[in-house]
């Protein structure tokens, strides 16, 4: 009797939790992406140093390209800032009455920090960096 | 104004799968979503099933997903919904018995596991067990819960695994943990100091946003996390 309680991925995504829910989903995605990128980085450096072969060189060229760095910078800066917001709200629950404002503040910090990073990365990329 | 209601329908005796049914109804901007459901049931399709009792936001029967977010059908006015299309679905993460009716038993089991009653074996004084206004204020917010399950069924951690006790159970534990007359705080904190206790909470805030009583649910959970971490109720 009755329908299974299982919540399918898209049913969950359709829930309109708003900004805070999106921030949490992005945090999880960027957390996993960080593991992959840090993994790739360690992996590539290891092979570069041990073998210096084409495979390692290719990974390093992709990894160090400015396009890739723009993506990595987003992931690192977002995960770091959002993680700090969560940590602060967890340590001092009374600040949670300003949780909406905390999310705004986070974007307020993110946009100039990330924007500046992107400008610098692109400048280097276009003036003969990588 | 005319409103297009899209309602989740599932009849366990006939349907293998749920489907949506659309109804066009005339509505006043000041009508509540519950009134529209009553209209459909009374005048268009008597088989539509949903729970409701008080119709005034105190009994907690009619929490459901209204345009994708949990709320009480009796507390949402048509004019507060920015669209003339209203989609109504049962809460997520509890099995659907029929249409908008979900099985609340797993939810109440978690509630009961929190010992949601005063525990104090000390001989009572001749009068009431007194407390100061400040002591009463400490847990005032969490006394307001009506056990509607809007919070628990808005929580992605609960969707993923219903062993998680869920926000509502924690809110009701908070109600007694921070009550100066109660003596079982340590026991309740012990139950919640578990991977399916407070640690499933990732501070997502869906529960706080969903709560029709405007309880600061995530803050209550946070205060309990902190009490467990520091071993102190201050
Ligand atoms: C600035 C540095 C960082 C900060 C402040 C930070 C903060 C946090 C916090 C607070 C959480 C818990 C969030 C929650 O409860 O949902 C978290 C989760 C996580 N972090 Fe980080 N983190 C940082 C760097 C990293 C790095 C370098 C990696 C990868 C190597 C990483 C991978 C993850 C993963 C996989 C999760 C789990 C995601 C989840 O539970 O939703 N983080 N981080
Ligand atoms: S805390 Fe709020 S949303 Fe959760 S069960 Fe109680 S009244 Fe409903
Ligand atoms: S019918 Fe009682 S809370 Fe809505």
Beginning-to-end CA distance, first to last residue of chain A = 62 Å
Assembly context of the chains: heterodimer
**Class of the largest domain in chain B, according to the CATH hierarchy?**
Mainly Alpha
Total strand count of chain A, please? 0
Number of helical regions of chain A: 5
Q: What would the average pLDDT of chain B be, to the nearest integer?
A: 97
Number of helices of chain B: 8
Q: What is the mean pLDDT of chain A?
A: 90
Total discrete domains of chain B: 2
Q: How do the strands line up in the largest sheet of chain B? A: 2-1-5-3-4
The main sheet of chain A comes to: none
Q: SS-based structural class of chain B?
A: alpha+beta
SS content category of chain A: mainly alpha
Gyration radius of chain A (Cα, Å) is 19 Å
Blueprint of the fold:
The complex is a heterodimer of chains A (130) and B (234).
Chain A: H1 9-14, H2 19-50, H3 54-64, H4 66-91, H5 99-126
Helix pairs in contact in A: 2-3, 2-4, 4-5
Chain B: E1 2-9, E2 19-26, H1 33-44, E3 63-66, E4 69-72, E5 85-89, E6 96-98, E7 101-102, H2 105-112, H3 133-137, H4 156-160, H5 166-177, H6 185-192, H7 206-210, H8 217-230
Parallel strand pairs in B: 1-5
Antiparallel strand pairs in B: 1-2, 3-4, 3-5, 6-7
Helix pairs in contact in B: 2-5, 5-6, 5-8
The structure holds protoporphyrin IX containing FE (HEM), iron/sulfur cluster and FE2/S2 (inorganic) cluster.
Keywords:
heterodimer, A: 130 residues, mainly alpha, 3 helical TM bundles of succinate and fumarate reductases, 0% strand, B: 234 residues, alpha+beta, 2 domains, 8 helices, elongated, binds protoporphyrin IX containing FE, binds iron/sulfur cluster, binds FE2/S2 (inorganic) cluster
């Amino acid at each position: 009797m009755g329908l299974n309680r299982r919540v399918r991925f898209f049913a969950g995504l359709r829930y309109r939790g708003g900004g805070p829910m999106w921030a949490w989903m992005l945090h999880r995605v960027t957390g996993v992406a960080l593991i992959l990128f840090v993994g790739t980085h360690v992996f590539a450096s290891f092979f570069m140093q041990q073998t210096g072969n084409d495979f390692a060189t290719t990974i390093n060229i992709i990894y160090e390209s400015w396009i890739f760095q723009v993506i990595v910078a987003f992931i690192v800066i977002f995960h770091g800032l959002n993680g700090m917001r969560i940590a602060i709200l967890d340590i001092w629950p009374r600040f949670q009455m300003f949780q909406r404002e905390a999310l705004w503040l986070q974007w307020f910090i993110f946009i100039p920090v990330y924007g500046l990073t992107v400008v610098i990365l692109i400048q280097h990329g276009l003036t003969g960096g990588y | 104004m005319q409103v297009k209601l899209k309602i989740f329908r599932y009849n366990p005796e006939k349907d293998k799968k749920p489907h949506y049914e659309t109804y066009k109804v005339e509505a006043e901007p000041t009508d509540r979503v519950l009134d529209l459901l009553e209209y459909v049931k009374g005048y268009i399709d008597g088989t539509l099933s949903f729970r409701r009792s008080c119709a005034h936001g105190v009994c907690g029967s009619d929490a459901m997903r209204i345009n994708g977010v949990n709320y009480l059908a009796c507390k949402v006015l048509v004019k507060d919904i920015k669209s003339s299309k209203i989609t109504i679905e049962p809460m997520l993460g509890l099995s659907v018995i029929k249409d908008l009716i979900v099985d609340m038993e797993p939810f109440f089991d978690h509630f009961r596991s929190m010992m949601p009653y005063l525990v104090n074996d000390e001989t009572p004084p001749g009068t009431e067990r007194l407390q100061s206004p400040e002591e009463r204020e400490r847990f005032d917010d969490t006394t307001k819960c009506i056990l509607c399950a809007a919070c628990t069924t808005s929580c992605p951690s609960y969707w993923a695994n219903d062993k998680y006790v869920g926000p509502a159970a924690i809110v009701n534990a908070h109600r007694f943990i921070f009550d100066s007359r109660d003596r079982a705080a340590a026991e309740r904190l012990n139950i919640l100091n578990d991977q399916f206790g407070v640690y499933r909470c990732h501070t997502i805030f869906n529960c706080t946003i969903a709560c029709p009583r405007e309880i600061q649910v995530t803050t209550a959970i946070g205060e309990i996390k902190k009490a467990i971490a520091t071993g102190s109720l201050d």
